[in-house]
Design a protein that fits this description.
single chain, 512 residues, alpha+beta, transferase, Prot_kinase_dom, ABC1_dom
Length: 512
């Protein structure tokens, strides 16, 4: 009798619960957690089966293997992107992350996912106005004199609208998509389940770290108060760089889901036409961006980790280009031990010091894969690293070689990503995004860029060593050593400047 009663209650309760869920989601079935989970699971299962069938059909030595893998990569990446767009929010964020890993994933996935940076779905304007009212307690029309209904940009978690405050100030209003925060918990659990399932089916491809990083970072990115605080902290930390601009936060019109900031005019950092029209030096932009990130990574240990072109603007300033950094939601704080080892690793790579690379890669838990790890960090071939990356020009042949090797070493790359300290994962993404900007500007890091990086690495390492000094003699000895190293680098930079002068260039061409 009790069993019959239970089933009767179940037949009644389940439809009621389902109906309530549908109503609470504004009759949008696609936004239900179970639907998004099912959609993601079906997509991943289909992709997994396709790869299993391919690997069973072709051996890696088969003449048709390369073409078959290429076609399947494209097909699978497109399916994955479609699923991310339908599920939205956290899924788009992960898709954008994959689209940033140009030297760590097959190019088919990178190019397919990269589209998500510019084509994230938009929210309905009335839904966004509801978010503003719920968080700030006032209607949009009461808060702003003007509010542009067309967004400046739509991202995975929010979209930005240009507006004018009642006092006449132009602002950019970042408003969180209404359902992102509510869906985030289920979406993260879905990703965790799926990446563990993929790891079980394909033990050599371990991307569990992707779900772990999303689980850690997404709640932070959904907190716009935290983003505003990051913005202010970075502005104070890098105030010595007069060419850097971070927008001022308008706190009285900001909350967890609404961030109102000073509106900053500028062109996207990868917009060559904008730079040409405004007489902005591309090489100076690359050099200054490199200075900012070298200071953040090696010296400060506090890194803006989402520098894709939509978040980095440039404009003409009094003393060259100004760089405007937007979207301060995703930061990585580096421990001192990690920061110093990472600095030493880069110094070894710049100096073509193989033993140094091996030693510091081992300290970063990479061990016998130190050569591949160095190539991943620098996005250069092993031959280029041995020749000196500040002296060996980057060529199209080398670029093609690297892209081929990414496909050939997927298992080893996956192993490295599973071994390295978690702090390294966002740095790898940041490095790849910055290199993507350089590629769009047709500007690879020059000797000057490596000189700036070397200065920051030397400062990071010797400042850290000075902290352990127990006597003034130790301190002054290390300080002198630091200054001598920096002086040598300065002399080398003067030498590079001299040989670049027309007189020296002419003599060189005559002798050749």
């Amino acid at each position: 009798m009790r069993v019959q009663t239970f089933f009767k209650l179940g037949r009644t309760a389940l439809p009621v619960a389902f109906g309530a869920a549908v109503i609470s989601n504004n009759f949008d079935l696609g936004s239900l957690g179970i639907v998004r989970f099912g959609r993601a699971a079906a997509t991943v299962l289909k992709i997994g089966v396709d790869y299993k069938l391919l690997f069973r059909k072709y051996d890696t030595s088969h003449p048709e293997y390369a073409d078959a893998v290429h076609e399947l990569h494209l097909k699978s990446a497109t399916s994955l992107r479609t699923m991310c767009c339908k599920n939205g929010g956290a899924f788009i964020k992960v898709g954008q992350h994959l689209g940033s890993l140009e030297y760590l994933l097959p190019i088919e996935y990178v190019q397919t996912m990269k589209v998500l940076h510019d084509k994230a779905p938009q929210s309905d304007l009335e839904d966004l106005k509801t978010v503003v009212f719920e968080d700030l307690g006032e209607q949009v029309d009461d808060l702003f004199l003007e509010f542009d209904p067309e967004p400046l940009g739509a991202a995975s978690l929010a979209q930005v609208h240009k507006a004018r405050l009642r006092d006449g100030r132009l602002v950019a209003v970042k408003i969180q998509h209404p359902k992102v925060k509510a869906h985030s918990h289920v979406d993260i659990r879905t990703m965790e389940f799926l990446v563990h399932a993929v790891n079980w089916a394909f033990p050599n491809f371990n991307y569990v770290w992707l779900a772990e990083e999303t689980k850690k970072n997404l709640p932070v990115e959904l907190d716009f108060v935290n983003e505003g605080q990051n913005c202010e902290r970075l502005g104070e930390m890098l105030s010595k760089f007069e060419f850097l601009k971070v927008p001022k936060v308008i706190w009285e019109h900001s909350s967890d889901r609404v961030l109102t900031m000073e509106f900053c005019e500028g062109g996207k950092v990868d917009d060559l036409q904008y730079m040409e029209d405004h007489n902005i030096s591309v090489n100076q932009v690359t050099e200054r961006l490199g200075k900012l990130y070298s200071e953040m990574i090696f010296v400060q240990g506090y890194v803006h980790c989402d520098p894709h072109p939509g978040n980095v603007l440039v404009r003409k300033g009094k003393s060259g280009p100004e760089i405007i950094l937007l979207d301060h939601g995703l930061y990585q704080t580096l421990t001192d031990d990690f920061r110093v080892e990472y600095s030493k690793m880069w110094m070894s790579m710049i100096n073509a010091d193989v033993e140094g690379m091996k030693q510091h890669a081992t300290a970063l838990n990479v061990g016998d894969l130190f050569g591949l790890f160095a190539c991943m960090l620098s996005a250069r071939s092993w031959d280029a690293l041995l020749a000196g990356i500040d002296k060996h020009e980057f060529t199209v042949e080398e670029k093609n070689e690297i892209r081929t090797n990414v496909g050939n070493y997927l298992v080893e790359i996956s192993a490295i990503l599973g071994r390295v300290p978690r702090q390294m994962l966002l740095l790898l993404k940041t490095n790849d995004v910055l290199r993507g900007i350089e590629s769009a500007l047709n500007s690879r890091p020059s000797s000057t860029s490596f000189i700036n990086m070397s200065r920051c690495c030397i400062k990071a390492v010797t400042d850290w060593e000075m902290l352990s000094c127990s006597s003034w003699g130790c301190y002054f000895r290390l300080k002198l050593h630091q200054q001598l190293q920096l002086a040598r680098i300065s002399m080398y930079s003067v030498y590079l400047w001299l040989i670049s002068l027309p007189l020296f260039s002419k003599r060189k061409s005559l002798h050749s």
